[in-house]
Design brief:
about 220 residues, mainly alpha, Alkaline Phosphatase, subunit A, about 45% helix, binds zinc ion
Length: about 220
């Protein structure tokens, strides 16, 4: 999704979860954030890392694909201070999952989180937000929990779409694998994922994206055109 490279072919197997050294190399050399930076675009990863220094993220042994990419453009990274000042979002939107560890960070309704993301989008050329409670709740196989997560996400999206539509911002929503749609299975699924584009670039993007591999080239082309 973030490289335009079919990494399963490149490394000879499909890899779930944290990228290997080999896969990290591919991501570090060539990714959406780096390419946008080369084009002098302001890029932001909206999910806050609860640290005070980017070094603390770089030193982590396990890094997600998105983390590996964001570290290649360190100024894209949001940290605790950004979250405290509503310049970032928590990966669960409402911050409920961090209340036991960070009681000083106030819980926000999903509609408010949408406003925070919208403000970031106004300040940047490309803003990425990663929500993975859908994945976590899919793994839990807990139907009630999955429904609660989807309700939260739905409220967030309704508010976000209202804002981006009024501002003429293109909103893209997609996923790198299924999970929550098959609550009776614990793992990721191989079902096709949605690619939803909404706003000025919607038709143009939809015409160009048929697989995960198309996403980065299509987004870059959208900026080049
Ligand atoms: Zn998962």
């Amino acid at each position: 999704m973030f490289t335009g490279v079919n990494c399963a072919v490149a490394i000879g197997r499909h890899l779930e979860g944290f990228p290997s050294v080999e896969l990290r190399k591919i991501i570090e050399e060539n990714n959406l954030f780096i390419e946008l930076k080369k084009r002098h675009k302001r890029v932001r990863f909206a999910d806050a890392y609860l640290v005070d220094d980017v070094k603390e993220i770089a030193e982590r042994r396990f890094k997600s694909v998105t983390t590996v990419m964001a570290l290649t453009v360190p100024e894209s990274i949001a940290m605790t201070e950004d979250l405290m000042e509503d310049r970032a979002l928590m990966q669960d939107l409402t911050r409920e999952t961090i209340q036991d560890r960070y009681p000083d960070i106030p819980v926000v309704p999903p509609q408010r989180a949408a406003e925070h993301l919208f403000r970031l989008a106004l300040l940047n050329d490309f803003t990425l937000y990663e929500f993975f409670q859908t994945d976590v709740s899919g793994h839990s196989m807990d139907y009630a929990r999955a429904c609660a997560v989807l309700r939260t996400y739905d409220r967030f999206l309704a508010a976000l779409v209202r804002c981006t539509e009024a501002a003429g911002i293109t909103l893209v929503m997609t996923a790198d694998h299924g999970n929550i749609e098959a609550i009776g299975e614990r793992g990721h699924t191989r079902n096709p994922v949605p690619f939803i584009a909404f706003g000025p670039g919607e038709a143009w993007l939809r015409d160009r994206v048929n697989s995960l591999q198309d996403i980065t080239p299509a987004l870059l082309e959208a900026f080049d055109r």
